[in-house]
Design a protein that fits this description.
Blueprint: H1 17-23, E1 35-38, H2 51-65, H3 67-72, E2 80-84, H4 91-102, E3 106-109, H5 111-114, H6 121-135, E4 139-142, H7 146-149, H8 160-173, E5 180-185, H9 193-196, E6 201-204, H10 210-220, E7 225-227, H11 232-238, H12 244-260, E8 265-267, H13 268-287
Parallel strand pairs: 2-5, 2-6, 3-4, 4-5, 7-8
Antiparallel strand pairs: 1-3
C-alpha cells in the first residue's frame, strides 16, 4: 500500500513570511535571524537520480510518512541524514525535495550569523536552532556543514571551533525533534569522524550518468518547443561528468538564447552553443 501523505498539525510553521520570521531563533548578541524558513510549496523538488540513490530518498520519505506505524513497534524512522558529494550534484536540492515530500518547511541555518568570536556564543546559537527545530517541525538544513563540523584533530583552533563541534555532537546525540535534520558537505573526509555515527543515514549524491543527463535535458526543456531533431547522444557525450546543476543550466541558457533572438523553439545549435559556453567558463575558472 502507498504510504499516506503526512498530515500537518498546528505546530507546523505557517507559510506566512511575517509570522515565520518571528518564530525563527535569533543570535544572542546582535538579535540576527539564525536561519531562513521556506514553506514546502515554494521549494524546488524535481530530481533525476540513479535508481539506487532515488531509492534512498524514497525510503526516508516513506519512513517519515509511516512514523506513527513504526512507533507502534518501537521503531524510529530515519531522521538525521548526511548527503555528500561534489559541488553541483544536488545535495541542497535533495534537502528541499525531502521538505516538499514530507510537507515540512525548510529551516536553513545561517552560519554567518551563527558563528561568534565571543566565548561559548556560537554553541549557544546552535542550541537555539535545535530548540526551534524541536518546537517547529521542519527539515533543518545544515548546508555545507563542514563549515562548523571540521575534524577537531585537523583544526588549529582548539577554542571556539572545538567547542562548536562538541556542541553539535551533543545536540545530534540528543536529537529528538519531530522533523528531519539534513546536513550536506562537499568534503566528507574533513568532517569530525565522531559526527558520522550520529546520522541515521549517510549517502552519496552522485553526478548524473548518461541516462540521467538526457532526462534532465528533456525535463528542463519540456515547456518549450524543439526545432527539428536533436542528437541527444551527442549532447550527453559532451556533458559527460558534468554536475546536474550544469546540465540544467545548459538547457535553460539555450532556451533563453532562443527567446532573446525572437525564436519560438530551441534548436540543437542553441544547445550546443550553451554547452560550449559553460565548458569554456568552467575551464577558465579552473585555470584561476
Amino acid at each position: 500500500l502507498k504510504a499516506p501523505r503526512p498530515r500537518h498539525d498546528a505546530k507546523v510553521a505557517p507559510s506566512s513570511p511575517g509570522r515565520s520570521l518571528k518564530e525563527l531563533p535569533l543570535s544572542r548578541r546582535l538579535g540576527e535571524s539564525l536561519a531562513t524558513l521556506q514553506p514546502p510549496e515554494s521549494l524546488e523538488h524535481h530530481m533525476v537520480l540513479p535508481p539506487a540513490t532515488e531509492e534512498k530518498f524514497a525510503r526516508i520519505e516513506a519512513e517519515y510518512a509511516a512514523r506513527e506505524r513504526l512507533g507502534v513497534y518501537g521503531l524510529q524512522p530515519r531522521r538525521t541524514i548526511l548527503l555528500y558529494g561534489p559541488p553541483g550534484c544536488g545535495k541542497s536540492l535533495g534537502a528541499k525535495r525531502l521538505a516538499w515530500s514530507t510537507g515540512l518547511p525548510l529551516m536553513k541555518v545561517r552560519f554567518d550569523a551563527l558563528l561568534s568570536s565571543y566565548f561559548g556564543e556560537s554553541a549557544a546559537n546552535l542550541r537555539s536552532i535545535f530548540t526551534a527545530a524541536k518546537e517547529t517541525p521542519c527539515v533543518l538544513l545544515l548546508d555545507e556543514c563542514d563549515f562548523i563540523a571540521r575534524s577537531r584533530t585537523n583544526s588549529r583552533d582548539i577554542g571556539e571551533a572545538s567547542r562548536i563541534v562538541n556542541s553539535l555532537l551533543q545536540l545530534m546525540e540528543e536529537y529528538d525533534a519531530p522533523g528531519l535534520l539534513v546536513a550536506t558537505t562537499n568534503v566528507e573526509s574533513s568532517l569530525d569522524s565522531a559526527l558520522f555515527r550520529r546520522f541515521d543515514d549517510v549517502f552519496l549524491v552522485p553526478f548524473p550518468g548518461p541516462e540521467q543527463v538526457e532526462r534532465l535535458l528533456r525535463m528542463t526543456l519540456s515547456a518549450v518547443e524543439l526545432e527539428g531533431t536533436v542528437d541527444w547522444a551527442d549532447l550527453v557525450r559532451r556533458l559527460k561528468g558534468a554536475p546536474a546543476a550544469m546540465v540544467v543550466k545548459a538547457a535553460r541558457d539555450a532556451a533563453k538564447a532562443a527567446v532573446l533572438i525572437g525564436g519560438r523553439s530551441v534548436s540543437e545549435a542553441n544547445l550546443l552553443q550553451s554547452v560550449d559556453d559553460l565548458q569554456k567558463a568552467q575551464g577558465a575558472a579552473e585555470d584561476h
